[in-house]
């Protein structure tokens, strides 16, 4: 009997703890769904996530497929067939390519779908890394404002701000090697600055609130005050910048790919555009050029839409 009462008490305790949080989430989600931009951004992002997780479901062919000859090697194409590549959209015989093919006979839609995984990986990885650096440093800098700790962090930020973003990335990738991991690290190194500065400003304001003073009087340590009382209140702002950093990372990777400074072994929308340029088909193969450009634009816009909507939900103006 006592065991049953203890279990019931534990369940009741957990329920009491989580019910207010669930209710807050429901209210926040209800407010978020009122933003058409946020809903549109979420739908776009979900579509690309599904592409990344299940590319074979959405792509009409595998990556090994080539026009005219199914799964055989491109080397067996006759000169007459090669002259027909890149090929505009065609349905049925001699092949099925809803968005046409590139110079190698690969389906543009297939490449578009399989490249979503690389874009999301770079976006989320760079965004999370920049947040993991910028948010803690901003919290520490703001909490210890006007001390040597704050001064040191802000001087580092000033020095980093003096480095131009894209040239720094180009030099770093050129020195360390053209790999996706190095591109992510380079983007993260240069994108945490805005996080740090704005989180610092928010922390300077929050640390003067009454509940922080009460925690300090109650004997709470600095670490507990920062991560238990201040961090939850800056998380919505941190998420906004995570979304923005993810969008910037995707655009930066596309820029590097266009300049020939991306991993050529990985499928990416930026590499698709670079291949159009390198084969001199910018003006006569729009079916090859426009889809990856629209994909880059739409996924970057989706992150911005989500970030702006989350900010409005967390800090309503009306």
UniProtKB/TrEMBL annotation:
Domain ABC transmembrane type-1: 116-307
Record field: transmembrane: 37-58, 119-144, 234-261, 285-306
Subcellular location: Cell membrane
GO cellular component: plasma membrane
InterPro entries noted in UniProt: BP-dependent_transpt_permease (IPR050366), MetI-like (IPR000515), MetI-like_sf (IPR035906), OppC_N (IPR025966)
Keyword Cell membrane listed: yes
Entry keyword set: Cell membrane, Membrane, Transmembrane, Transmembrane helix, Transport
GO biological process, one term: transmembrane transport
Topology of this chain in the membrane: Multi-pass membrane protein
One Pfam family hit: OppC_N
Principal location listed in the UniProt entry: membrane
Coiled coil: none
Family of this protein: Belongs to the binding-protein-dependent transport system permease family.
Protein's UniProt name: ABC transporter permease
Organism listed in the record: Haladaptatus pallidirubidus
Upper taxonomic lineage: Archaea, Methanobacteriati, Methanobacteriota, Stenosarchaea group, Halobacteria
